[in-house]
Structures are given as structure tokens and as C-alpha cells.
Write a structure and sequence with these properties.
By secondary structure, the protein is of the alpha+beta class. The protein contains four helices and 15 strands. The strands form three sheets. A six-stranded mixed β-sheet has the order 1-2-3-15-7-4. The chain has a six-stranded mixed β-sheet with strand order 5-6-9-8-10-14. It is globular. Bound molecules: zinc ion.
Amino acid sequence: MSCKTLADGIHHFTCFPSFVRAGFSSREFPRARYEDFLTGLSLKMDDLVMVEQVHGREIFIAEVPTRGRMEVEADGLVTDRVGLVLGIRTADCVPIFFSSERTKSIGMVHGGRKGIRAAIIPQVIQTMRDLYRVDPSELVVAIGPCIRQCCYEVGEEILDGFSGFYRSANRGKAHLDLVGKVGAELVESGVDSNRIYDCKICTACSNDSFYSYRKEQGTSERILNVISLVG
Ligand SMILES: [Zn+2]
């Protein structure tokens, strides 16, 4: 198992080195209770860094906490600063967590269909290479709860860039496998497939526990995904 539940609504990845704390929330923690979720992971709201997520490929280099304010437009964050908590909010998009043990650096990506097509995954890996001298083969990567191929039906007109990662359905529709595409891009970027851990949760199938934008037809609540170097 790549993750375990610490308490109701607090999910913790166990695949990372001991100096990394990473996890995600479920419905017990709407936005108004993010602080309680962080406390449950022994993290602090004061250390949280978040960005205004715009489905692009910009990576924000986190150096100081923003207490959860979102002043910079980006869809990925990286840091090597101990204590900062990188946060990405999702409700169907793919949250992707990165850590390198040797260089003691971490990253986090909001992987939506548009951002993935815009190559945010090679972008975050290149950023970690440039800034922290990370070798992609030493990265440990985790994939959080997101909408899976079982539930992600899209129009065939938007499948450009996802060749090989969808299954055609009726009436010009197809089922898109975003996680399959993410995995392929990680491996293409040099990540070892044995170091990619997937929590395997589908937000739409498990909508009783997790927010799903599609299943709920536009909820404004989001899962909070976080990763932090804890020293
Ligand atoms: Zn599903």
C-alpha cells in the first residue's frame, strides 16, 4: 500500500522517505477545515504555500510561506526549504507528488487535461533538475485521488495529445485515461516506473468520500493535497 489513513479524512503516503510528509484530505475537511487537516498531518497552516491554479505549465519556486494565499498563477510548486508545505487543490484533476531523497527536494503538480497537454510534467522534472540537480531516476512519485478512465467521459474533439490513452465510447465520446498518460510522461522523463505509487482512488467512484467536480456538477470544494520536508 502506498498510502494509509491516519484518521478520518486524513490520508498519508507511506512511499516517501521519512523526512517527507505527504497526504490528501477527504470530505471531512472542506475548505473551512483545511487547518484541522494539516494539524492531523502535524503540519501548520502558517507554512502552507498555494498558487492560483490556471491549468497551465508554470512552476512556482516556493521560498517563503504564503499562509495559503494564492497570489501567483501556476500549476506546480517545488522547494528544498524544510518546513514549507506545498499545497494543490483538486476535485478530479490529478495531484502528483515528487520527492528526491538525495537532494532533499520536493514538488507538487496539479495535473488537469490542459496542463498535462501543455507538458507540465516534463516541466516540473526539468525545474527540479535545474534547481536542485535532481536525477529523474531517483525521484519517488505519488499519484493522489483523481477521476479515472472508468468515469472520465469526454468529447472526442478534445483528445488531441492523448493518443493511446482513451477508449472510444458511443456518440462521439471517449473515456480518457489521464493517469495512464501521466505515468507514460513520467517514465519518458526518466522516472523509474518502480518508484511511481498510485493511491488508485477514483474521485467519481468514491464521491461519498472525495470531492468530484464532474460527479457533483461543479462543486466549489476541493481535496487539499500537500507535501512537506519535515527535516
Ligand atoms: Zn470511477
